[in-house]
Amino acid sequence: MGEPDSERAFRGGDHPSSWIVPLTPHFAGPGVDVPADAVQVSVELRVDLPTPPDRPLRARRFERWRSTRDGRVEVAHDVECVDGAGAVVAAARWVSRGSAGSAPDHGARVPTSAPAAPSGQPVACLRVGRGDVLAYATAVGVRHPLHTDPAACRAAGFDDLVVQGVLLLDAIAQAAELDHGRLQVWFVSASIVGERCELHRDGPTWSVRAADRTIAVARLD
What we know:
Order of helices and strands: EEEEEEHHHHEEEE
Strand order of the largest sheet: 1-3-4-5-2-7-10-9-8-6
CATH superfamily of the largest domain: Hotdog Thioesterase
Number of strands: 10
Shape: globular
Structural class: alpha+beta
């Protein structure tokens, strides 16, 4: 794995929802080098061990690869949470894409393919509010304008703030009652605050759908 780019101590929680902040690359420390216009492509969440509340843990971040193609750069960050004995209790891989910069490429890109999105009758509905989006941005220290600035959103063609993809991942994790295992999510289109979305399921495959489009597809292993 090598030496982490950054790491940070924290205390654990008792539900998968508690992972969405410490497994964010920015939580482990400053210096996350992604383009200013980067959008999330996919997230893979893996929960290995149950974690009692208040257990002392460390979040460690690694830049796994940087790959430039056709003027766009794809960057993958791995974040792992380890206990005092060094055992990994949870981990995540974040892949984002944006305008190419000056940083050199490195590592071996590992592409993944999303499964077909299930439809049919929804198993749950959700609506992410403005307060949820702003609270998460504050908690992890990410001030991306699409999640914090309505004027920037309108300039980009969105009616309001864009929901962070990880909040949709968390909604799927809760609906699936995930306490261990791996959840991969691929983001297809943006979700806007206040928009009614439906969760659909076909076996291990999930989708988040709005009235007119698929927003995300997920697979639970």
